Amino acid sequence: MAKVIFTAWKSKSQLLQVRDEFYPPPTYTGPDLRSHGCAVVEAWKLRGNVPHHVEATALLTDAILHDDADRNSIFSIRATYSAAFCRFVTGLVDTKIHGVRRTMFQRATDLGLPASFVELRHEATHREPPSLIVLRKAAQRSLEWLWVNYWAFVSDDAVDGGSEEAVRAAISEALQPILAVEENKNISKKKRWERAVSVALRLVEICNGAVCGSRILANLLVEGGLLVPGDRGLGDSMTEAFKRWNPVLQKVAESHPAFLRQLTEDLVNELAFKNTDASDTIGEALYLWIAHIFTSTAWEFHRQACSQSYVLRACDESPHHWTTMLGEQVRKQAGKAKVPARSGKNRVSKVSTARNDSHYAPAQLSEKLVEFGWGYLEKWDSRPLGVVSSH
Length: 391
Prior knowledge:
GO terms for molecular function: endonuclease activity. By secondary structure, this protein is mainly α. The chain is built from 18 helices and no strands.
């Protein structure tokens, strides 16, 4: 059964029209339509499923249009800028929204968001609103970032409802910059990162426009052997391959969690259901990739979408050298995750009247709490906080 994707707009042309209202082409000489674009996005919000990038663009643009000292007070202008900017940054990097214990600076680094945005967001939230000069510049830089990281990839050539052959061809073309290994070696680290982000955004666009995009991308990466260096020998390190592919795969997984589930299942299927032994270089590479996704800190945020039970079952049903090692690694990592970290600062004194609430929680609830980073305090101290004197 085909997967149904709901969007706030009826067709891609409507989204392109709003984009052109926010970012008029250089040759455009007509009236300013930014306020109309903001109104359209506001109407879309009533329907739901509006991407954060679209909403943030409208909020920042509306703040710029509000910047009129003849009609509005300086305080209200600063407040509007601050609110729009804070919502833009928070929607991208807030760890509570994304459910992972990582700092906002770490999330910003993953997304290619300037660290200064996080600092300014903190200042605007917890201190006095920044000056108008700072806020105006931040709003403009934010709109530029949104163009580079979202709007530039919303185009007419999106594979909207195309055939699987067309989607596969588009994905293959998008992956070419990453596959140029020798060329990637000769460019700077910053340029390599920018190239990876550009490829990832194009892949996200393809997956947005085609319901089969995530599945085809995963199949192409695994069946085509694109994740494994062609000249790799047994025992060779996979570090360079991880560095090259991680930014691309992680950015796609952020927008399409189903992609990572499909990728890991395809990887473990390729590993488990083929004749392989300890001397098989491809089997070793597949094992290292799956172990990397399920055990490394680089994938801690993303692997919540993976099916750990499926990987373990595949390993158990097709035991050989690499699946046995993989099953042991995944189980070991799962055991670590189920042990909540205990900090000395958070411990409370043990008294006879204390109650251990973990005994009263259902087992399934306890497992879920641990899975998402929560843990029980050793014991709950039910003593009163103070005593009221009768004098």
